[in-house]
Amino acid sequence: MHNGAPVVSPPASTRPRRPYSERVLLPVNVTLGIVLAVLLIAAVAVAALARLGHTRAIAVAGLRAAAQLAAVSYLIGWVVHALPRLLGFLLLMFAVAARTAGRRITRNRSWWWAALPIAVGVVPVVGLLLLTGLVPPRGLTLIPVTGILIGGALTATVLAGRRALDELETRRGEFEAGLALGLLDRDARMEVARPAASDALLPGLDQTRTVGLVTLPGAFVGMLLGGASPVQAGAVQLFVLVALLAVQATACAVALELVARGRLHRVPLTPAEGE
User: Fold this and answer.
1) CB contact at 8 A, 101 and 158
2) Sequence-separated (6 or more) residues with CB below 8 Å from residue 93
3) Which residues cross the membrane (predicted)?
4) What is residue 269's predicted lDDT score, i.e. its pLDDT?
5) Is 158 a residue whose pLDDT tops 50?
6) Torsions phi, psi of 181, nearest 5?
7) What's the CA gap between 55 and 35, in Å, rounded?
8) Are 80 and 88 in contact (CB under 8 A)?
9) pLDDT tens sequence across 186-227
10) What phi and psi, each to the nearest 5 degrees, are found at residue 228?
11) What is the rounded distance in angstroms from the CA atom of residue 172 to the CA atom of residue 3?
């Protein structure tokens, strides 16, 4: 009460928002560039001193990320204004993810099968979101959502494929014993590879279980910085995490099935399949 009259707060929509400079997480300036360079050098130095390997890969990955993000930042502003360009950009994201996943799993020509788990995981979820209107068919919305889902499917596909094939190589004798007992090739591989491949779901499960307690993921922070309320930001983050669980579970299951059926493999089934 003030002078006998109640004090009414203005609606949230009319309250003055903080200046953009106060809402951004990191300012884009020379200081940011210097800090990024120091962190990348530190990562390379630690890997080299500890003899962890991947020293060159760490340096190349950091430099590639900088170049790719700079290019994508400008490219997105161009593709969002035309549907053909938008669809082409989404297809490019999918193609890069499929090749990256495939080449992480195997070096022979069976790598292209890695596109199937990613597609089967991502396409139905994106289609559902568009049909229900939860995600409008606009570039600035569709690109980040689809990118998050493709990234999750890529991770699950790589982990499931690699772990399954590693397990089959390590436990070759158990696979052959299954065949001797009368199991089909697919069933014998599945019995050996399934427990290891299922570990591909652990990163997504851990992220979902600990959200808000250990970390505040990117979608939540981005919504807050954009001016959304904590409730809105939490709803968006929950949607992202649950969608990722569906995508990753599907990608993991399809990748495991491809390994069990011999579609994704490391030892060529015939000389023509090797590289």
Assistant:
1) yes
2) 146, 147, 150
3) 24-50, 82-99, 111-135, 141-161, 211-229, 235-256
4) 45
5) yes
6) -80, -5
7) 19
8) no
9) 888 888 888 888 888 888 888 888 877 766 666 676 666 666
10) -75, 160
11) 85
